[in-house]
């Protein structure tokens, strides 16, 4: 049976290649090409003598936003793998699209690339056209552009750009399996589902934090009402002060695992994304090693050395992915405990709220303003409790899914 893996009508100037064709390149820490496979050389259109020792930007196309590379290098500098859609340029001036996963290695970096075809690719390709044009027109600084890309990922419902690219990798792996008429890899499916649940949990937590921050204005309203209804230091003033102090403590606790660069949610998201990148790398490397020694010998590239390197990286990727998942499972347990602690603290706030309702009843006809304020508290409390229950449920699902996944893996 023949599998037709080419795009039927590539865009003008686009170099066609098959979904079964995977390629890689290896660079030193400066981004200078040290090795690659014959598919990379063929598609790029350069002779090996022109590629080896040349900077990898020899194939960079100006339509790939500079901000994409800034995010890529930021992740690599921290020791994390990262994925990206990249439009590259050939020697003749034509172009080709890839989804690349780049990972740090001992002497530099390794980039593994496949042909993209998912609906996510269609969205990103259109976005790149607009964004790269804006970069050039406004001479946008890459760091500012990276911030805009991260904001774009958040607008699409992802906790980080890494999580967005991990999602994209999962979509491309599944799309590639469909193109090659084979079943989707089970591990990839599990990780995609985990990533989805994790993103839902993160969104719930951010909404919860916003609810708490909005709640901070209500004790101030209670104090204003108290100043009209009772002498200074009366029961309503005392209730408002107690409520403000207690709710501020909960808000601070929430910020510690929802906001900031090292918050619990983002750390867990990065670990799951890292696992997805690494397992995707191991899949691609496994296929690459089957065909690496099939090409013609190339001066300056020792195929046996490259094969051994890739096989070591495949083993390391699997081990590092497992470690990332163990870390994510630990963070999920911490998140579940933190959510339960906040639910217990909410009981204290409920007690203060009930005292306010009692004072409101005692005032009878004079407490309409206070009653309206307490009604606001009732609404906020109901919303917060619902979100806490959702977060605890999602955290437990994440923890159980990761634990089941780890138990199913060797080692």
Task: Label this structure with key terms.
single chain, 411 residues, alpha+beta, Beta-Lactamase, 2 domains, 5-stranded antiparallel β-sheet, 9% strand
Structure, explained:
The protein is of the alpha+beta class and 411 residues long. It has 2 domains: 23-165, Beta-Lactamase (2-Layer Sandwich), CATH 3.30.450.20; 186-408, no CATH class. 66% of the residues lie in helices and 9% in strands. The chain is built from 12 helices and 5 strands. It has a 5-stranded antiparallel sheet, sandwiched between helices. The model is unreliable at 1-9 (pLDDT under 50).
What does the secondary structure layout of this molecule look like, with pairings?
Elements: E1 23-28, E2 33-36, H1 38-44, H2 48-51, H3 66-77, E3 82-89, E4 95-105, E5 108-114, H4 119-138, H5 142-155, H6 161-179, H7 186-215, H8 217-229, H9 235-258, H10 264-291, H11 303-363, H12 368-408
Antiparallel strand pairs: 1-2, 1-5, 3-4, 4-5
